[in-house]
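Summary for the steering committee. The consortium agreed at its last meeting that each partner would contribute one worked example illustrating the joint modelling workflow. Our contribution is presented below. We chose a case with several input lines so that the handling of multiple components could be demonstrated. No manual editing was applied between input and output; the record is shown as generated.
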Amino acid sequence: MIEMKEVYKTYPNGVTAANGINVFIDQGEFVYVVGPSGAGKSTFIKMMYREEKPTKGTITVNNINLSKLKNSKVPLLRRNIGMVFQDFKLLETLTVYENVAFAMEVVEEQPNVIKKRVMETLELVGLKHKARMLPTELSGGEQQRVAIARSIVNSPKVVIADEPTGNLDPETSWGIMKIFEEINLRGTTVVMATHNKDIVNNLTHRVIAIESGKIVRDEQKGGYGYES
Amino acid sequence: MKARTFRRHLRESFKSLGRNGWMTLASISSVTVTLLLVGVFFVIMMNLNSVATSIEEDVEIRVHIDPAANEKDKQTLEQQIAGIAEVKSIDYSPKEEELSSLIASFGEEGEALKLVEQENPLNDVFVLKTKNPTDTIRVAKQIEDFNFVFSVKYGQGTVESLFNFINVSRNVGLVLIIGLLFTAMFLISNTIKITIMARRKEIEIMRLVGATNSFIRWPFFLEGLWLGVFGAIVPISILATAYYYLFDFLQGKLAANHFIKLIEFNPFVYQLSAILLLMGAAIGIWGSLMSVRKFLKV
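What follows is the complete predicted structure of the assembly.
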């Protein structure tokens, strides 16, 4: 479902963030991406939703060849990828409901479908009762759950998460991980960059370790493998 | 685009005007101030121009015919004058008519002139107008060389400096209006740019969830339109009201001075309003689309 072949990425300032990456992630997999800061995890992830273009090599996501994808078609790719970030990226002026519904309005879905689907998704993340609140009135963990609801409301095939628990305490992080597990069990591919050793070691899945822009380790049921 | 989506954009554009209250106010005020300046200037310029035009139209060439000319000579002369391409109209005014209008212009004191009616010393005159008032001088020079022309009068000296003055003031006014317009565009688009800068996160998120560029642009396009239109309302009402009273007031004062006359309220003020409204809308839309463009590069 996600495939990279001989992918290189050098930024204009000379930093090489991907140095010959080959990887294949199948539909329905749950993959952790680990590695020290500055190793190229973010670039690896950003290239999947075409926020960054590789300098060389081919990337295929959901059978779309990203190197041949026109700029104007990028939105269509993004609609099949759910995105979750460390800083949630919610619109503070919109309510919880509106934040989630936003992703469906963008794809011009029917209003009654939007209503039904948003409420279902909020129920899945356990925030149905807070639909009318503003993000600023919620805790960090709750805000992240809104962001997750937004990422899956359009039923994407892939959910990509960049340090989703980076701003959260351990207990809240486990709550968030439970939701990702649930999403994965429904057949959605989950790719998650993380620094959370505890989670990687206890909730075991495939682990891809990146260092200096290269995959140095790729094992099923792997551990975090770094100190702290 | 679906009608539903358009309604959504419409709704969103109004909502976000409210959400960004202070920024909205700042943008509208900057539109208001600049359009007011442009509007005032425009009113002054158009009126000056209209006065200038009416003065120009009063300029005529008077060809005094040599008393020695007989009827045939006069006809030849008239044909020669009519042959000049720039001439619009020729009127013949016999010396009797010239004298009676001279007497009339002196009022009561003119009675004395009636004594010379038997031996009228004046000339028969061709009064002519040129198609373009600025051709006056050239045409006059040309006629001077014709046969049986006693003299040619067109307000020598005065006309030259009048035309010069009118030309200079027209050009200065045009330059000022264009300068003001550029300032307005710069000022307004900058204010709108700041407004949108504050909302880059919103645009970033829209892009992440897969909104197409046109979907993102639409609400901003409409917002720019509203900013421009709302910003134009105040200057339009101020100018319309002010002009209404000014016209009334000056009409009394300047009535005696028949050639200085303000342009009629209707349709001038309606045209002015339409121009300001269009200008506001165009600048608002332009400013907002230019600012969004920056964030839409994929």
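Chain B has a mean pLDDT of 81. The CA atoms of residues 225 and 281 of chain B lie 5 Å apart.
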